[in-house]
């Protein structure tokens, strides 16, 4: 007689029954292996079949090969899945990647504005749509889990991750959490808050990160210490999380930071008492990349301590990512010695299995090749272009009242396009694009700002591109005067600690380039940056118009749509635009002393003087 399929393999059974049945069949070694997430470069049949490791990830930029297609990604993930399904109990892996502004690890994918630009739109439906489209392009590559959205409330722009934040006030971040419903699909009416949800195979598991207080790190020091009362931590940094739980977010990532000196990765109070018990989160908590290794520093690199401290605090899955044998050895030893109770292991594995059953991965473990054509498709790029338009913040338009400088004329005789960021896809995409910290030049398919300008102006317009003009080149060029100049300046891409800066002047000598040009040619300045930069008052007076374009991604056309008047500006500042870094940290909550160059919420329309 054919043996009956075990209950956990029966999709008609309730999720919780499948979780319990499968858990009851697992050995301690298999349970421990499910709690490990390893990097793709060490994923082997030995790890996934013999040990039954639970999850694999791609670090930022870690792809099958440079320029790998979605099909090559899907081949890689599917091969790993076959190894996992060959394990004793056939538990599929879930594969994670940072798709934080589109599927930014994938060459040719649609790259959306980074979160700071989306925060300027204050458009929750746009965020949801972006989540939907990102999910399609992620699933096209065979990946089921994205480590997004970042819910950090950036309180100090000196932090290298401010561009990953929707804004400096929790209300802005809360509004944009609608991306979770785009990524995962919207749960039905009455879905229990905190219980993971995934609509189907065209959605991806989302990850609310980094719990909690990452954006409040003191002086913007990455992986630093957030010093505040519990009331402030809850009101400012924790408030976007319930918005995600109401949407059934499946996973939460612990923060590298500490709260009043206690590392989040070992905080039983915040991860178990608050996140799991008080807020009722029933999905899985994953550590950050080598997040538990950071716990070792004060403990003389005693990795066993790190494992015990993080697991007992309530972290369920450890992003190891390489030395997983050591992790498994220590964890099993800790359970056998009683330092980590088996009840904690069972709670962690239940949560991991719950997310896997909810995701449908047991029924559909492999990629859907019918999605391959959606990667970077026209419809998605049009959505990204619309997002760019809505993210732009017009900060100045005309030197005199009632004499707006924008929109620019499309039929001008001769125009100058200058600046380090005028023709650089990599710069306009910023960090977390193709490589972890981004890159320069044509790093992926897209339209640079210069290319968009050339497309927007009339045939009779002469477009002169001078990235870094000298006074003499300008003089030579002026034989035939320029109607106007578009000068594009900003920051080079960065990620995490690589972006921590105490001085926030315009890099690449941008100030001098601007001053030289604006001194003789009517100039509109575009600032490509993940945060406000210092703008000297004298320079501000010299230029005719100023636009914050943030990190717009691949669709530079969204910028010229507004510059040339095809649509109006709508964006408003999601962060305070400081006058000087000596003012930092600065928020509107400080009352009368709040003295920014441009306040949070500021943004002009082309034809109005003030919003
Ligand atoms: C990084 C980041 C986190 C990211 C993870 C995986 O260090 O802190 O946001 O999701 O590692 O790439």
Automatic annotation (TrEMBL):
All residue ranges annotated as the Glycoside hydrolase family 3 N-terminal domain in the record: 27-355
Any Gene Ontology biological process: glucan catabolic process
Keyword terms, alphabetized: Glycosidase, Hydrolase
Gene3D superfamilies: Glycoside hydrolase family 3 C-terminal domain, Glycoside hydrolase, family 3, N-terminal domain
All residue ranges annotated as the Glycoside hydrolase family 3 C-terminal domain in the record: 392-604
Superkingdom as given in the UniProt entry: Eukaryota
GO MF annotations, alphabetized: beta-glucosidase activity
Family matches, as InterPro entries: Cellulose_Degrad_GH3, GH, Glyco_hydro_3_AS, Glyco_hydro_3_C, Glyco_hydro_3_C_sf, Glyco_hydro_3_N, Glyco_hydro_3_N_sf
PANTHER family: BETA-D-GLUCAN EXOHYDROLASE-LIKE PROTEIN-RELATED, PERIPLASMIC BETA-GLUCOSIDASE-RELATED
Family: Belongs to the glycosyl hydrolase 3 family.
Protein name as it appears in the record: Beta-glucosidase
Protein species of origin: Rhynchospora breviuscula
Upper classification of the organism: Eukaryota, Viridiplantae, Streptophyta, Embryophyta, Tracheophyta
């Amino acid at each position: 007689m054919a043996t009956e399929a075990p209950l956990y393999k029966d999709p008609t059974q309730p999720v919780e029954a499948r979780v319990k049945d499968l858990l009851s069949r697992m050995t301690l070694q298999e349970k421990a292996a499910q709690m490990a997430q390893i990097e793709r470069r060490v994923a082997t049949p030995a790890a996934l079949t013999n040990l039954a490791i639970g999850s694999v990830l791609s670090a930022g930029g870690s792809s099958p090969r440079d320029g790998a297609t979605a099909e090559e990604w899907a081949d890689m993930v599917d091969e790993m899945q076959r190894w996992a399904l060959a394990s004793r109990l056939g538990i599929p892996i879930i594969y994670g990647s940072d798709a934080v502004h589109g599927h930014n690890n994938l060459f040719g994918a649609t790259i959306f504005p980074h979160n700071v630009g989306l925060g300027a739109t204050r458009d929750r439906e746009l965020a949801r749509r972006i989540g939907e489209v990102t999910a399609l392009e992620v699933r096209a590559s065979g990946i089921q889990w994205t480590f997004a959205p970042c819910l950090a409330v950036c309180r100090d722009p000196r932090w290298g991750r401010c561009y990953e934040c929707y804004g400096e006030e929790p209300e802005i971040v809360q509004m944009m959490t609608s991306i979770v419903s785009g990524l995962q699909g919207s749960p039905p009416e009455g879905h229990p808050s905190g219980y993971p949800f995934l609509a189907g195979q065209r959605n991806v598991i989302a990850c609310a990160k980094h719990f909690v207080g990452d954006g409040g790190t003191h002086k913007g020091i990455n992986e630093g210490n957030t010093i505040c009362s519990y009331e402030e931590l809850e009101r400012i940094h924790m408030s976007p999380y319930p918005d995600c739980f109401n949407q059934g977010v499946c996973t939460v990532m612990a923060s590298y930071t500490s709260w009043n000196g206690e590392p989040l990765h070992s905080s039983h109070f915040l991860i178990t008492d608050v996140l799991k018990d008080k807020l009722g989160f029933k999905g899985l908590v994953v550590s950050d990349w080598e997040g538990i290794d950071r716990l070792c520093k004060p403990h003389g690199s005693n990795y066993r301590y790190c494992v015990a401290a993080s697991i007992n605090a309530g972290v369920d899955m450890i992003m190891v990512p390489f030395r997983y044998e050591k992790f498994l050895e220590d964890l099993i030893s800790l359970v056998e010695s009683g330092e980590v109770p088996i009840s904690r292991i069972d709670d962690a594995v239940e949560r991991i299995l719950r997310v896997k059953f909810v995701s449908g991965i047991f029924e559909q473990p492999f990629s859907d090749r019918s999605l391959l054509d959606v990667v970077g498709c026209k419809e998605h790029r049009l959505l990204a272009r619309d997002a760019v338009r809505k993210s732009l913040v017009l900060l100045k338009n005309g030197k005199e009242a009632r004499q707006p400088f924008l929109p620019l004329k499309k039929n001008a005789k001769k125009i100058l396009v200058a600046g380090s960021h005028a023709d650089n896809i990599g710069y306009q995409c910023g960090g977390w694009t193709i490589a972890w910290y981004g890159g320069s030049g044509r790093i992926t398919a897209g339209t640079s700002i210069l290319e968009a300008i050339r497309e927007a102006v009339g045939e009779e317009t002469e477009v002169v591109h001078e990235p870094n003009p000298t006074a003499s080149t300008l003089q030579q060029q002026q034989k035939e005067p320029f109607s106007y100049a578009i000068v594009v300046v900003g920051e080079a891409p960065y990620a995490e600690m690589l972006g921590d800066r105490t001085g926030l002047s315009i890099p690449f000598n941008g100030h001098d380039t601007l001053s030289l040009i604006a001194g003789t040619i009517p100039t509109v300045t575009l600032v490509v940056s993940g945060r406000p930069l210092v703008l000297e008052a004298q320079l501000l007076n010299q230029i005719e118009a100023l636009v914050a374009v943030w990190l717009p991604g691949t669709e530079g056309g969204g910028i010229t749509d507004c510059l040339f008047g095809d649509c109006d500006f709508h964006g408003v500042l999601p962060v305070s635009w400081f006058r000087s870094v000596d003012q930092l940290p600065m928020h509107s909550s400080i009352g009368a002393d709040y003295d920014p160059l441009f306040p949070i919420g500021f943004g002009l329309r082309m034809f109005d003087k003030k919003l």
